Each structure stands twice: as C-alpha cells, then as structure tokens.
Amino acid sequence: MQEITILSGKGGAGKTSVAAAIASLAKNAVFCDNDVDAADLHLILHPEIQEEHDFSSGSKAEINPEKCSVCGLCEEHCRFNAIHPNKEGIPEVNPFQCEGCRLCERICPEQAIISVQFNNNKWFVSETRFGPLVHARMGAGEENSGRLVTEIRKKTRELAGETSAEFIINDGPPGIGCPVIASVTGTGKVLLVIEPTLSGLHDAKRLLELVESFRVPVFAVINKYDINPEITAQTEQFLQKKSIPLIGKIPFDTRLVDAMVAGKSLVEFAPDSEAGQEFKSIWGKLKKNHDLR
Amino acid sequence: MRLIEIGAPALKNNTMQIAVASGKGGTGKTTLAVSLFHFWKKFSNEKVQLVDCDVEEPNDALFFKSLKALEQKQVHQYIPEIDTSVCTFCKKCVEWCEFNAITIVASQRFAEVDSSLCHSCGACLVACPENAFTEKPHPLGIITRYNTENGDEFTEGRLKVGSAMQTMLIKELKKEVKKNGNITILDSPPGTSCPVVETVSDADFVILVTEPTPFGLHDLKITVELLQELKKPFGVVVNKAGIGNSDVYEFLKENEIELLGEIPFSKEFAQKYSSGELLKNIPENLEIIYWRIIEKITCRK
Q: How far is residue B210's CA from residue B244's CA, in Å, rounded to a whole number?
C-alpha cells in the first residue's frame, strides 16, 4: 500500500483540485481530507456518511464565582493570559485563550475551578463514488488540529488495511505548522503542488525544508504554469537542483472552477481538456513505485 | 485623477486594528492587506502599519521593492528541562502535564520533556516538589520590524521550520505591535483554528476575503461562524468576482452580512500578483473599490 500526501505550503495553490482529480483516477484507494480546519474535498466527493465520531480537542477551565475568593493565584499562574476579572472583579476564563493545561484548577485553594471537555469536533467515515473518505469538521476556533489529523489518518490506514486498498490519498492542509507536521509524519510520498508566483514558490521552499527533515520522497507539479513563465522556469530550476521530479504542469483553466461549481473533478468535467489529460499523466507517473526521473 | 480631487471626504483620525482573514487559502488575504496598507495611508495621511501574522508562510514582504530592517528579534519558547541529579522520579509532573510531554522511567533514572509536545504552561514547575525543572530557551521564530520605501512600518513573524507552535509566535508578534494612534492591518493565516483566533482576538474589525466558488463559500461560512462566536464585527470582500457562481451573494444577503466590496477577477492582475507587482500601475477602478472599502470600515464607528 502507498500513502501519498498532497501539500503546497501556500493556500489556494490547487491541492484539493489535484486531490479530486486523482480521486477520480485512482482505483482501489481510500481518501482522507487532512485539511481539518477548512475541509473542502467533500464538496467534490459528496460523501454519504456511514459513521460519525466525536473528537475532544481538550478541556477548558471554568471558574465557579460562588466559590472563588478572588485570591488572584489563577490569573498570576496562567501563561496564556486567559483569565481576566469580569465587571464584578471576579476572574473569568476566556475559552478561546485557554489551552486546557489545568494548572489553575490544580492550584486553586478554593477548588473553584473545573475543567469542561470540549467536543466540538466531529469526524466521519463515508462512502463516495470513488471509494471511502475519512474527513472531519472542526468546531470554530478549536485547538489541536494536528491531533485530529493524526486521528483520522489512523482510521484511514485501518480502513485501507481492511479493504486491501492499494493507495491512501491525503489532501493536506496549507502552511507548515502542526497540522502539516501531522499530515507528513509517516506518509510514503509527498506531492507538492506549486503555483508559479513569488509567494507560491517561497511557500513551497519553506514546506520542502520541513518535508526534507522527514526524509519522505517528494514529487512536484506546477499548477497554472502558464500564468508566469518566468517563475515557472525558476521553479523548474529549483526542483532540478533539489533532485525533485517534476511530474506534470497543469495549465490555467477556468473550467477548474466550473467543475467545482458542478461538484465534479476536472477529469470528470472536462476529460479531454489539456488539464484533464495532464492529470491522467500525473497520476500515471505518481502511482509507479520506482524512480521517476 | 486622484480620489481626493474628485471630492471624496478626508478620513477622520482613527485608532483601529483591522484583521484580514479567510477560511480558505489563496482567496486574496495578502493582496487585500498589502493594498489596504498602501491606500489607507494615501487616502487618510494617517500612520498605518502592516503586520504579517501568517507566520507559517509569511508573504507580505515579497510585495515591497525595498525593505529596511529596523529591528530583528529571535523569539524563544521556554521548555523545561529536568535535572536528573535532583529528580526523585515521583512522576507528579507526568500526572500534571496535560500534553503528555514528559517521559519518566524511574528504573533507568530517565526524565525528559518532549519539546514538540510541550506548551510551556508551567504546570510541571509548580508540580515538582524538588525544583528539578529549569526552563531553557528554544528558538520559535524571528520577528522583524521593517521600514517600507515610503517610511511606513511593517512587521513580520517567521516561524522556525519544524516548530508546531505557530500560535505562540503570533502571540509574541502581537506584543510587538503598538496600538496607539495607528491604523494596524493584520494579515491572518488561513483556516479557522487557534492561529486565526489569536490573530483576530484584539481586532476592532475583521475583513473576510472570499472568492465566489463553492470552496470559497464553504470556508467563508465556517469563518463567519467563528467570528460570530467571538462576537467580532466583520464584513466581506468578494475577490475574483466574475468566476464561479452567485451563491456567496445570496448567503451574504440571507445572513445580513455587509458586502464591503468586490474585486473583479482578471488574469492580468493574477500575473501582476505572481511577480510581486501588486502596487504598480493600479487601475483607477480598483483604487475606487479600495477607497469604498476603507470608507465603509471607517464610517462604521
């Protein structure tokens, strides 16, 4: 079984469009939307939910004003600046700033502080026309998206094992922070989607620095390659220097947006377009296990 | 023709912190933040500063021709270390650590804090009866304060590659920002989780940038949910108007959300963006659009 994670550093470079195109081409695969913060793959895959699970991102402190003696100890010890006095001068916890370390609860001499578990996150196992999809919906402003990514990837692997799937395709999150680290850890291959803009290349380089520390084989595609031939050339040189195989160049095509509006992947929507053909070629190269150069 | 000349009123003095956010990446946060920074100064003659809070992938700097670094600061996360010559391996710290960052094997006299899991909450220091913990600095990222070619202030946070503590760096970055007598524009990271909450938490107003596509709308909805929960005033700018469909406008109307402006999609503009030339030869219709956005925000007060 091969596990492939699609990443870009910069948001909006085309990760989900590439993931959707691959989903419509890959046979015997399980899919996982690792972008738990702003998951979009389901808008193309139209999952039928089979299982629903809660995911607790941790706890938040709550102060009982009846018991509080206003000694100020909790406020003094909170490193996240999450405890502030309210209008009556009694300390109150801002749940968006509280990281759930429970230190205040432990040191409160009046035992006025309790921890409340937050179960604002859900994750799902679904069926789609291309195969099973594991995806999540995070509660607004929740923490620990990295842990949620780890959780749904674990389930995806179990599912792939049970169904003897040949591939796992992870649609990754943007950036280089904790959810990205969680989506790269232990994956088999990274497909880097690069947009030929100054920011696209800049962000891809930072991401690559992170991925390199995991020693995972990396492959690259350039999306909207014709929007800036100069930066596309720079990107190609950069990839060559890094010995990263460039396995496809997707042209700028507004039909990618039309396909999204129709709830389809581009391969379904415009199979004979240049971009549609390119996706087929990209998948043909990516799924091979040997050296692609 | 300049807008001031066509009779637009000069903007009043204001102290305001404005965050530019969006659930989905690539909708145009940086474009909007950098352009607002440029136009706010031009239209109001106020002191305006820009802060790039997308510390994972900071891009604002790419859009300025010459930046002069005024000050650079290494930011550290303080992670405790355990002195095993003092530690009695009682494991009270393990019990108190909510992030499972501490491993103690008494038989091996082994005690260690995993820096990638530690949130620096300080609980272990309070828990330890032997005072065996000392906090040591670990690099988290760099904060740089610049002057732009026009003499305006721009500050950027840049997360150290490999660090998973982006929110902590954003918190430190915000401490560097002086709020007095300034218009401060914060360019937020994408998403809806803790780094975004940290960026918008002190903002007086949030501009949400979206694109009129199903992905854009879906991610806008969850970001609206977040801002409503945070009780933040906000308005929406539709970027790349003309592509996709009109669902986003129906959503805004149904939920009585203010449409601050629409920036039409143009391949020519996308090309200018790609080479970092956002602020060169801006067409007048765009200038008017930005003017109206700024006017709507300042007239809210």
A: 12
B164: its two tokens = 């998973």
Residues of B in contact with A198 (CB under 8 A): 59, 62, 274-276
Q: CATH for B76-138, among 3.40.710.10, 3.40.50.150, 3.30.70.20, 3.40.50.300?
A: 3.30.70.20
Q: Is the pLDDT of residue B179 over 80?
A: no
Please name the member of B98, B243, B244 whose beta carbon is closest to the beta carbon of A101: B98
- Three-state secondary structure call for residue A174: coil
Q: How far is B71 from chain A (nearest CA, A)?
A: 22
pLDDT digits (tens, 9 = 90+) for A59-76: 899 999 999 999 999 999
Nearest CA in chain A to B197: A141
pTM here?
0.93
pLDDT, residue B15, reads 82
Between CA A152 and CA A132 the distance in angstroms is 13
ipTM above 0.90, yes or no: yes
Residue A154 CB contacts under 8 Å (≥ 6 apart), including other chains: none
A75 inside 8 A of chain B by CB: no
B195 vs A contacts (CB less than 8 Å)? 177
Mean pLDDT over all residues of chain B?
A: 92
pLDDT of the residue at A293: 41
pLDDT computed for residue A118 by the predictor: 80
